[in-house]
Every structure is written in C-alpha cells, then in structure tokens.
Amino acid sequence: MIQHLWERGYKLNKDKKEKVIEELKSEFDKAKAVIFTDYRGLTVAELSELRKLLRNKDIKYKVVKNTLAKIASQGTPISVAKDIMKGPAGIAISYEDPVVAAKKVLEYSKKNEKLKVSSGIIEGQLCALEDIKAIAELPTREVMLSMLAGVFQASIGKCFAALNATINSFAYAMNALKTKREA
C-alpha cells in the first residue's frame, strides 16, 4: 500500500519512509538481479502491462524514490549502484534467475521504446546496458541445467557402452575358448 501511495504522488511521512527503506533493504539483500530503468513516458496501463509480464516470472517492478533506494542499498550488494541512482527510476528485482530478469525487461523495452534500461546489478556486479544485453542472450538456468544433465547422460551412456563392449568381448573370448577345447 505504501508503494502505491507514493507512486500516486502522495507525500510519505518519516515512519512510512522508514518502512519503505526496510522493505527495499530486505528485497535488495535477497535479490539476484536488480535492473534500473527510466520509465518516464509510460502510461499507467503500460506500467501495469510491464508489471504483469514481470510478475509472471516472479520479478517485481517498483517505482522508487532514489534517495530512499540509496539509503536502503547501504550494506547490501546493491550499494555499488548508489552513483547511478539519479532521476526517476523503476527497478526490476529478481530473486531467482538473473538471466530471465534481463530478458524480460529488455523484451519489454524493445516492444515499448519509452522504457529505457540504464544499468543493473547482476549477482552483486554492476553491469552496463551492454552487459545486461549479453546476459539476456544466455540460456536460462533451467536450459543450462538440462544441457548439463544431457552431457552427464551422454558421458554415462558412453561409459556404459564401453563397459558393455568389454564384457561382451570377454564373453566371446570365453565362448571361443570353450568351443576350441571341445573340438
């Protein structure tokens, strides 16, 4: 509720600001990816569409006051971005796969050019727009895990085939020896 009041232009008193800071700090501590955007020019409907797209992938999108975000970032991995928090900012926060967050935010920014991606923090590292684009091209965590499982399965299959061939060769040799002795 506090976030919605602030977004509508209401002034926050000191207690509400402290609550927003605590909430942001908690989110920043858990975040695997935080992507900073400039949302100026987006309508309420477009912001809602963006939030819905991101929410489907368990990514939060918040419009926050930079002074509150800077205070909340102190002591968190997001603190490296305090110098880039200028002007109005929309923040996409992902707790799971940073690749998905980068992909979805960039996907929406291509669809709606009013949303500008400026930078982000991926796994505690400050990333420029070019870095975020490179990360977005990576396969998602699930795809990479399935690729890894395929590599292991292929290796195990080859190992099994090699062992099976050795056993078959030994069986043929024993059968040949038995046939030779009987003759």
Layout of secondary structure:
Elements: H1 2-7, H2 14-30, E1 33-38, H3 44-55, E2 59-64, H4 66-73, E3 89-94, H5 98-111, E4 116-122, E5 125-128, H6 129-136, H7 141-182
Antiparallel strand pairs: 1-3, 1-4, 2-3, 4-5
Describe the structure concisely.
Helix content is 58%, strand content 16%. By secondary structure, it is α+β, with helices and mostly antiparallel strands.
What does this structure look like?
The chain has a 5-stranded antiparallel β-sheet with strand order 2-3-1-4-5. A hairpin with a 2-residue loop joins strand 4 (116-122) and strand 5. The chain has 2 domains: 2-138, Alpha-Beta Plaits (2-Layer Sandwich); 139-183. The N and C termini lie far apart (93 Å). It is 58% helix and 16% strand. The protein contains 7 helices and 5 strands. By secondary structure, the chain is α+β, with helices and mostly antiparallel strands. The model is unreliable at 1-9 (pLDDT under 50). The longest helix has 42 residues, at 141-182.
The CATH topology of the largest domain turns out to be Alpha-Beta Plaits
- The structural class is alpha+beta
Would you identify the regions where 5 or more consecutive residues have pLDDT less than 50?
1-9
What is the level 1 CATH name of the largest domain? Alpha Beta
Largest sheet: 5 strands, antiparallel
Q: Write out the strand line-up for the largest beta sheet, numbering strands in chain order.
A: 2-3-1-4-5
- Outline type: elongated
- The succession of helices and strands, N to C, reads HHEHEHEHEEHH
Instruction: Quickly count the domains.
Output: 2
The CATH homologous superfamily of the largest domain: Ribosomal protein L10, N-terminal RNA-binding domain
Number of helical regions: 7
Average predicted confidence as pLDDT: 84
N-C termini distance:
93 Å
Q: Whole-number radius of gyration? A: 27 Å
Share of β-strand residues: 15-25%
In CATH terms, what is the architecture of the largest domain? Answer: 2-Layer Sandwich
Helix content: 55-70%
Per DSSP E runs of 2 or more residues, the count of β-strands stands at 5
